[in-house]
Amino acid sequence: MSDTSDDRYAVSVEFYDLLQADDDRRRAERRFGEAGRHARHGILDIGAGTGIVTQVLLDASTVPVHAVEPATAMRTALLARLASLSADRRARVTVHPRPVEATDLEEAADLAVASNVIACLDPGTRRATWRAVSRALLPGGLLLFEPPPATLPAGREAVRRLGPVRVGPDLYSAQVTREPDRDTLRIVFTYRVERDGHVVREEREAFSMWPAGEQQLRGELEAAGLRVVRAPSRDLMAARRPSR
Asked: In sequence order, what E strands does the chain have?
């Protein structure tokens, strides 16, 4: 996830890679690997988080990658992951510590991806993001993103359980729930550390998401100069900046 708020993810970043990295890597390879292999000029990773998608894009391509991550906690994990890579791969990454709409990228990439981030943007920021992506893409460039939920749930519901994953004597896990909160969707992550059947620590962090249906997204993208095209998988949307 990514957000313009600097103190967000301060709780979740401790648990994120331990509980989600393997699934996120497989999902990123399936969603973005092929497009990354076809990139010829540059790639924009919007909301790079802990760098899982960034690493997949680096592995799939030979072009520069712009990793945008404004949240300090997530960016710290991102840089730790980049530190573990070879020098030649690190040399292809530029880390941007501000939201994409505050960067000065102009026709820098022929591929832009946004994984698990668009839903976390309020409508005004989302529209500004589309405009920034349109500027950052070369003519003919492709945007791939995971769309927000189209509607709000009727009430509180469990989404999934993450883990458990063992670290020494401890079991780490998380319960994810969601519920409507006025016009937004409130996602709550409850993290637990258990030892010998007892909870020794529990942490919680909540995030807001803004639902948007396909037609609304189409209108916003077209207003930003992006044309919706067929996505490579059913769980993504895609748009292109028209060729000149």
From this structure: 43-46, 65-68, 93-96, 109-114, 137-145, 157-167, 170-181, 184-195, 198-209, 227-229, 237-240
Query: One-letter amino acid identity for 157?
Result: E
Tokens of 5: 């708020």
Q: Nearest CA to 161 among 19, 43, 49?
A: 19
DSSP code, position 23 = H
Reported as a single tens digit per residue, the pLDDT across 109-162 is 999 999 999 999 999 999 999 999 999 999 999 999 999 999 988 888 888 999
What's the CATH number where 124 sits?
A: 3.40.50.150
In a domain, 4, yes or no: no
DSSP string over 46-96: ES-TTSHHHHHHHHH-SS-EEEE---HHHHHHHHHHHHTS-HHHHTTEEEE
Residue 81 phi/psi, 5° resolution?
Answer: -65, -45
Residues 6+ apart with CB under 8 A from 241: 134, 137, 138, 139, 140, 141, 143, 225, 226, 227
Rounded distance, CA 63 to CA 71, Å? Answer: 25
Q: What is the pLDDT of residues 1-21, one digit of tens each?
A: 433 446 789 999 999 999 999
Distance CA 98, CA 92 (A): 19
Structure tokens at 216: 């609304």
How many domains is the chain partitioned into structurally?
2
